[in-house]
Amino acid sequence: VNTRYIYSLSNTAAKCEFYCNSGYTWNGSGCAAVGPNLTADITPTVNGTLRQGNTVSFNGRVVNSGGIQIIDPPFSDNFTYCWGVGCSPATQIGSHITKSVPFAASATQNDTSANFTLSQSGTLRVQHCIDSQGAITESDETVADNCKIATFTVVVPPTGTITAAPNVIDGGQTSLITWSSSNAANCIVQNS
Hints:
Blueprint: E1 6-7, E2 16-17, E3 24-26, E4 31-33, E5 38-40, E6 45-47, E7 55-64, E8 76-83, E9 91-92, E10 97-98, E11 108-112, E12 116-117, E13 122-129, H1 143-146, E14 147-154, E15 159-165, E16 176-182
Antiparallel strand pairs: 1-2, 3-4, 5-7, 6-7, 7-11, 7-12, 8-9, 8-10, 8-13, 13-14, 15-16
């Protein structure tokens, strides 16, 4: 049973302090049960090189920032993406990631997305959301608490052509080597 209030002074009109039993907190108007709160703890990071055509994966982390261990049910997280500046990530990367329970208060668990092929270049936004299917009743269900978004720049892979004239020479002879490229800073020519 929650204690609604106690008087700290004999003059009850002067001051009133409110106390809640263990497992409850004062919400401004009464004692409310303290629940788990799953929080997206970090902005997603990438494993791999952000180059068009490459396959990468993304990392995120969840923390149970509430005061209660989660025993049941299991919950799941996900990663979603979109292409473009300011877009809202909605296309899921792989399937939901089922988290293990029990999940202690203040504990963290890491998430890694399924492999993702970078099909184009440009701005890629990736969102990591915790309890994405709403299995856990949390003390803070806001998107700001449950999701984090990162913006990445995916570059076009370098291309180049190289020619030699003549393309076959004997020792002591010279050949003119020319090259052109896009998205490359230099060209290295090695003897074979």
